[in-house]
Amino acid sequence: MSDTELAWLAGLLEGEGAFILQRVPPTEREAARIRIKVSLQMTDRDVVEKVRDIVGLGTVRRAKTAKDHYKPTYQWQISAMGVVAALLQLLAPHMGMRRQQQIAACLAAVEEAGGVPRRRRRHGQSKYQYDGCRCDICYQAKSQANARRNPVAVV
């Protein structure tokens, strides 16, 4: 991304963007965690697609409109924590005070949570069984887990 593209992106996100910090409560299977996202929503599809092309990530989708007579709006969003954190660090010096505070809060939450998480999954562990990894190791582990849960009585 060139300096000109970065400055253009910062200006656009200053007015039309959102920097979102979500705190996800713990569940039975997962510990509490955070999510950070960068989102842009506007009626100009070509501009939203240009943002996607400049950043190189994310998807452009049509957002729901509140009323039938409103113009269609399009949304671009990224939520991969490592990418979002890197993008926020690039954007921060170009943003206004309010946006800099939002970015600082997002980056502080990432640091507080221990930094950008790495995948901790290993082949054969239960998380892989549900996520759909189809390698031989995970397939065998899933088969064994299913056999333990549903024993077949041999008569």
Q: Care to describe what's here?
A:
This protein has 155 residues and is an alpha+beta fold. The chain folds into two domains: 3-112, Roll (Endonuclease I-creI), CATH 3.10.28.10; 120-155, no CATH class. The protein has six helices and four strands. The protein has helices spanning 3-16, 45-55, 81-91, 97-112, 126-131, 136-149, and strands spanning 17-24, 33-42, 59-63, 73-78. It has a four-stranded antiparallel beta sheet with strand order 1-2-4-3. Strand 1 and strand 2 (33-42) form a beta hairpin. The protein starts with a helix and ends in a 6-residue tail after the last helix.
Give the tally of β-strands: 4
Helix content: 40-55%
Give the CA-CA distance, first to last residue: 67 Å
How many discrete domains? 2
The overall average pLDDT, rounded, is 82
- Count of alpha and pi helical runs: 6
Q: Over all CA atoms, what is the radius of gyration?
A: 21 Å
What is the topology, as strand order, of the major beta sheet? Answer: 1-2-4-3
Key phrases:
155 residues, alpha+beta, Endonuclease I-creI, 2 domains, four-stranded antiparallel beta sheet, 6 helices, 19% strand, extended
Quick summary:
The chain is α+β, with helices and mostly antiparallel strands and 155 residues long. The protein has 2 domains: 3-112, Homing endonucleases (Endonuclease I-creI, Roll); 120-155, no CATH class. It has helices spanning 3-16, 45-55, 81-91, 97-112, 126-131, 136-149; strands spanning 17-24, 33-42, 59-63, 73-78.
